[in-house]
Description:
Elements: H1 35-43, E1 64-69, H2 84-93, E2 99-100, E3 106-107, E4 112-117, E5 122-127, H3 141-152, H4 170-175, E6 184-188, E7 191-195, H5 203-206, H6 217-221, H7 223-226, E8 236-238, E9 247-252, E10 266-271, H8 275-283, E11 289-290, H9 298-305, E12 309-321, H10 332-340, H11 344-351, E13 356-358, H12 382-392, E14 400-403, H13 411-425, E15 429-432, H14 437-445, E16 453-457, H15 469-472, H16 490-500, H17 505-522, E17 525-537, E18 541-542, E19 558-559
Parallel strand pairs: 1-10, 14-15
Antiparallel strand pairs: 2-3, 4-5, 5-7, 6-7, 8-9, 9-10, 11-17, 12-16, 12-17, 13-17, 18-19
Helix pairs in contact: 10-12, 16-17
Amino acid sequence: MLRSLATSPFPRVSGTREVNSVAFNKRPSALVATALAGALLLSACGGGSDDGGSGSGGGGGGGTFTAYINEPKSPLVPGNTTESEGAKVIAALWTGLVGFAEDGEVEYSGVAESIESEDNQNWTITLKDGWTFHDGTPVDAQSFVDAWNYTANPQNAQDGGSYLSRIAGFAELEAGTATELSGLAVVDDLTFTVQLQTPFALFPAVVGYDAFNPLPDVFFEDPDAFGTNPVGNGPFQADSEYVPGQGITLTRYDDYAGEDAAQADGMEFIVYADQATAYTDAQDGNVDIVDVIPPDVISEAESEFGDRFINTEVSQITYLGFPTYDQRFADPRVRQAISMAIDRDAISTAIFEGTRTAADSFISPVVDGYREGACEYCTFDVDAANALLDEAGFDRSQPVNLWFNAGGGHDAWMEAVGNQLRQNLDVDFSLQGSLDFAQYLPLGETRGFTGPFRYGWSFDYPAAESYLTPLFTPQAFPPIGSNYPFYDNPEVTDLISQGDQAATEEEAIELYQQAEDLIAEDMPMAPLFFTQIQTVHTENVSNVRIDLFQRPVWSEVTVN
């Protein structure tokens, strides 16, 4: 996406700042773990096929390809897209302020020329000249400021609104006493300033996230229509309307000002209700890229697709979330017991061919700040689990509802979780897996989950903080955030805030880890697995690479 040069996740107080993390604009490594480099090596396995195929055009010289997505939750607006399926399309249509190198370093490969601060609180963002939206209008400072004001305003109910909560004036927006962020000001066409409520060294990395993308004037004329007729500034532009249940066709944007111009003439996102159907179509050559295949085909896919099978260690953690608003799950001991009753290793072996690692932390091993065994209640211990459930006075006679979205390959492992609860805790279960992804998250936003629910999270930028603020603080309550358990511990929020303002990476990580310790005790979500994903592609395409955010890099794909 974008880039950055520095080696430390904390910018120098005087100016050249950058971070790294999937969606930031800073030069430091945004607390990226050294393990990240090893993780990226896995993503290079496969996907480099030079096999001939049936596509038109030559490598880097054209042709078109197709890619699988599930139905996005929301219309295609960057500030309203915080889930994986819509984000895949946004990644093709938009380029943000910064990008990220394969090792997690922030790169200035996007719209930003520089992002500078002398105190980590007052930032000046200078844009590169020459960037345009797909309708030919300029990408300027006003297009960023207007987009951020719209996304942050709770009246607009944008899913990514909480990401702008650090900017001065956000509280007034929430209170309804202001309509714009007081911390934003346009200096000239290529310059704007940002004042944060408190210092935050990772700010240049955070702004690489989709919620900080610019919007053209045409968006504000009709936001509802824009979601199906998106106009971005990325390597591909929309060539058709987005049709729910079908998808959208894109063509290469020939006036693209970035370094990562599209190699193909065009691409089409095809919506599938079921991952298994998409995989079958890839076998038959009907869809070129399926970025995540079902767990029950992993072993056959590796042998069938050969070097067109890609195994990638990614930043995702799979959780079992708890509706803390439901009285039955309000006691932390109930949540701790359920977590300890799950044999994560057994499920990984039986369902995922060993491609999931039992999670023992709320922070992924791919970033600095991970500690082995940080989650005490992630340890499989049936006796301790039963003792906790008894202490809490949990009614074992009533089944537990287990929620997950349909069509995503979750049925088997969620049933395995249920079977373990029945066997280890003498608590029966009922699977609630009939909702499509686009229906599943809105139910969670309205506190509709009546039992533990499947949840997956990948960092928005490579930093420990990206696993904490968006999931476990009240400013991230839906609909403007991703805290679906509706968890709120003021001590956690305060420690994260202290970490944000820390002067050094070491201080920040220590404070984030203290917050994690409290979260691990409260257990609003139970970390289950650190994830590897398996991708397949047809002989029609080459140069398929999965990035830090577990998305194919669409601009690099070539048609054979």
